[in-house]
């Protein structure tokens, strides 16, 4: 799956570059629904053992890219928690993480790339 390979390449970039690429790619996409994002997530974790495991950055990027190839865009997020320290990347719709076992306030968001219609 092309989205998985592209996500692997993107995950090696500096965060500012990742955000710039994603901000460019989201242009022209409609905001994704929870169902669309969940379908994309299921496809990604079915296609990649790495994405099905602990590679949250690659998984979140691949889901966002697959959504974009389908004409929609979720909110892509990275965040941290401090006790105990952990970093995570995920996608969400309307402030709700999609396909994640954590509640929305589990991580403090550091970077987000929402659909254009949401950040204007």
Tell me the β content: 15-25%
- Structural class call reads alpha+beta
The whole-number mean of residue pLDDT values reads 94
How many individual helices?
5
Overall shape: it is: globular
Can you tell me the number of structural domains? 1
What's the helix-strand series? HHEHHHEEEEE
Measured distance between first and last alpha carbons: 32 Å
Residue runs with pLDDT of under 50 for 5 or more positions: none
**Sheet having the most strands:** 4 strands, antiparallel
Give, in spatial order, the strands making up the sheet with the most strands.
5-4-3-6
Radius of gyration: 13 Å
Strands, count = 6
Which bin fits the share of residues in helices?
A: 40-55%
InterPro entries: McjB-like, McjB_C
Organism: Streptomyces botrytidirepellens
Pfam family, one: Transglut_core3
Protein name: Lasso peptide biosynthesis B2 protein
């Amino acid at each position: 799956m092309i989205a998985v390979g592209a996500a692997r390449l993107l995950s090696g970039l500096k965060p500012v570059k990742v955000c710039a690429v994603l901000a460019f790619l989201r242009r022209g996409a409609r905001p994704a629904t929870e169902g669309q994002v969940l379908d994309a997530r299921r496809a990604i974790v079915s296609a990649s053992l790495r994405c099905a495991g602990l590679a949250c950055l690659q998984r979140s990027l691949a889901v966002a890219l697959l959504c974009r190839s389908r004409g929609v865009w979720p909110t892509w997020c990275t965040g941290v928690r401090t006790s105990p320290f952990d970093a995570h990347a995920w996608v969400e719709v309307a402030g709700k993480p999609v396909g994640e076992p954590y509640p929305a306030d589990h991580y403090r968001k550091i970077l987000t790339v929402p659909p254009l219609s949401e950040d204007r």
